[in-house]
Predict the structure of Protocadherin beta 14.
Amino acid sequence: MEIRGVLTLRKRQVLIFFVLLGLSEAHTESVRYSVAEETEIGSFVANLARDLGLGMEELSSRGARVVSDDNEKHLHLDLLTGDLLLNEKLDREELCGSSEPCVLHFQVVLENPLQFFRAELHVKDINDHSPAFLDKEILIKISESTTIGTTFLMESAQDLDVGSNSLQNYTISPNSHFYIKIRDSGDRKIYPELVLDRALDHEKEPELRLTLTALDGGSPPKSGTTLVLIEVLDINDNAPEFPQSLYEVQVLEDTPLGSRIITISAKDLDAGNYGKISYTFFHASEDIRKTFEINTISGEINLRSSLDFEVIQSYTINIQATDGGGLSEKCTLLVKVIDINDNPPEVTMSSITKTIPENASETLVALFSVRDQDAGDNGRMVCSIQDDLPFFLKPTFKNFFTLLSEKALDRESRDEYNITITVTDLGTPRLQTQYNITVLISDVNDNAPAFTQTSYTLFVQENNSPALHIGSVSATDRDSGTNAQVTYSLLPPQDPHLPLASLVSINADNGHLFALRSLDYEALQAFEFRVGATDRGSPALSSEALVRVVVVDDNDNSPFVLYPLQNGSAPCTELVPRAAEAGYLVTKVVAVDGDSGQNAWLSFQLLKATEPGLFSVWAHNGEVRTARRLSERDAAKHRLVVLVKDNGEPPLSATVTLHVLLVDGFSQPYLPLPEAAPDQAQDDLLTVYLVIALASVSSLFLFSVLLLVAVRLCRRDRAALGGRFSVPEGHFPGHLVDISGTGTLSQSYQYEVCLTGGSEASEFKFLKPVILNLPPQGNEVEKAPPF
Ligand SMILES: *[C@@H]1O[C@H](CO)[C@@H](O)[C@H](O)[C@H]1NC(C)=O
Ligand SMILES: *[C@@H]1O[C@H](CO)[C@@H](O)[C@H](O)[C@H]1NC(C)=O
Ligand SMILES: *[C@@H]1O[C@H](CO)[C@@H](O)[C@H](O)[C@H]1NC(C)=O
Ligand SMILES: *[C@@H]1O[C@H](CO)[C@@H](O)[C@H](O)[C@H]1NC(C)=O
Ligand SMILES: *[C@@H]1O[C@H](CO)[C@@H](O)[C@H](O)[C@H]1NC(C)=O
């Protein structure tokens, strides 16, 4: 643009030079006038008549006129006044451009004679143009790293005016970074240069808007402006920055995977790629990489694998933020893992005694330790066992506990304890662990065997087969094992005469009792002995029980007729007066039975009679009576056979033969009386006292006859009786003889039959009076056998 301006200027200079050459040929002298441009049309410039020395008339007569060199009619000559006036407004810039001075050459032509006058009009500049920039806006890109003092050439403005009215100065709007330096090109043209005065900072001021003003030298000066837009180009002059160098975050250890822990965010003041931050772990351990992941773009840190407070309580993570230009910054993230109660207490058994003896007190059952890996309350523990057990826990060293028995235990009441050790922590929720111990109580021989009964009574039939099982005793022992194994034995009899060893035996293992031989009720009706039960403990414990064996009678004895004697040297003959009334008591058959009970109940029955119908026998008492009145026709001698039968099964019987002689005379019952007083015993004679007593008959019973037979068998020479019978001499006390005539006695008596077996101990004996104390061995004499 400047170049074009220069060219135009030169063309005009050439033209002006040419015009001047042409004029100089015509006239050497020229008149000079000047006028300011833009002066109004018709304005007076000069009075030519006076200046040329011509008269008014001469001008008009000689046809004076003004001819411009450029043939333009800039000027007008008033022929009447001779004044030269402006024919148009002159624009200096149009006429001369930038050339200065601006001169319009013209001739004043006169005819008759032809005469030329050269003249020139100087068009003077006025400040009628402002400086102007071709562009309304100028964009300049300047890097922020540009050093101070750097200059930037600016486009210059144009001002068509010349001289002092032309462009003189440039100014820039006030700012803190630039000032304007004017550069003079030497051809009177000036250029503005922007000089960096203070460093730019893209981050603070990415762009500046300045106004460049061009000023001319007019008075007043005119100006033109343009906007200078300065774009400050960024350089990576900023590293990313973290708002804090240390981040701290607390994370529950049960945080689900994938959860966001924190988002770290750094700032980078740079723009564009230089401001793009990527986040990474810096020098991270394997643990950290495994557990966390970081989003390189957003800086979000997420949980990748589960946390475990018990393994790692905190992580120190270095995080690096790097911008696109490679600048980086670091910060530290402290992740504190917060414990949650995720570990139940643990019980570790150090020693355990599964079996303790029952009599031991405060015995150590178990030694164990507890632990909980959680922290705080989550790790504090309470240890307990059931309340209702005779055991207790005792804290010992640190977290060690002992489990002890409280007191001596009784295996027999409980031989097994299930102890549950419960350890509970105090966390939320509470976690607990149980450990079960089964403690067995071992036996100590603290219980003697116990018989099921303190005494046993066994019944046996007599005449049993030898080795017969007659019964059992049984004892139990509450202990266990060998302490409970019971052995039975017979204890030595209290009566040293009892031949126990030959009577019974016991099975040591099961307590079964056996009769060793056949028992004879008539010889031994009952006997007692003690049995012992002993366990196999150490020391052994034992107990005893009484066994009473009652021999049950068997009907093995036939009735024995005591009266009348059947084979006495003098067989009895009963005398009956012929005058006897019917029912006269002839005699009474007296019999005994060695058995007892039913087996000894006797009944009488008339089996044969010389004269049937004359005599009758009372079935129950053996009384023989006349059945009718006697007469002279009845024979004198009678023979009766009476059957005596017991009530056993099968019944046994005996017969007795009675001789009856009918006589004339008295009608008293016959009683054979001893010939001599008892105390003066006739040793040669067998003396028999028979006392027959008939008890009164009550209204309730058919009859009740109590018979007392006192038999005194005295024989000096035992051989006469085969050595079988031996009856003590003399009266028995309390024996009463009734001879009132009714044949009845109101008092009962006992009879005693003494059958001594001499030297033969094996023979049984009926012995002893009732009045005497019972012998200890229980060998009793039966009292008044009932009918
Ligand atoms: C240009 O203008 C500035 C500010 O107004 C002034 O200080 C300076 O002297 C001027 N320069 C000229 C050559 O007039
Ligand atoms: C327990 O019983 C055993 C065997 O009888 C005995 O040796 C021991 O002394 C008893 N202990 C106590 C504490 O009584
Ligand atoms: C102890 O536990 C065992 C096994 O569970 C069981 O068989 C036994 O009956 C329990 N004993 C007691 C006394 O509870
Ligand atoms: C311990 O015993 C209790 C009660 O018998 C039972 O409920 C529990 O399941 C047992 N615990 C273990 C670990 O065997
Ligand atoms: C009676 O006779 C029987 C058999 O005839 C005989 O066994 C018995 O010993 C005799 N008794 C007396 C007392 O003579």
Q: What stands out?
A: The first strand starts at residue 30 and ends at 36. The two ends are 182 Å apart (CA to CA). The chain has five domains: 22-124, 137-233, 246-338, 450-552, 560-771.
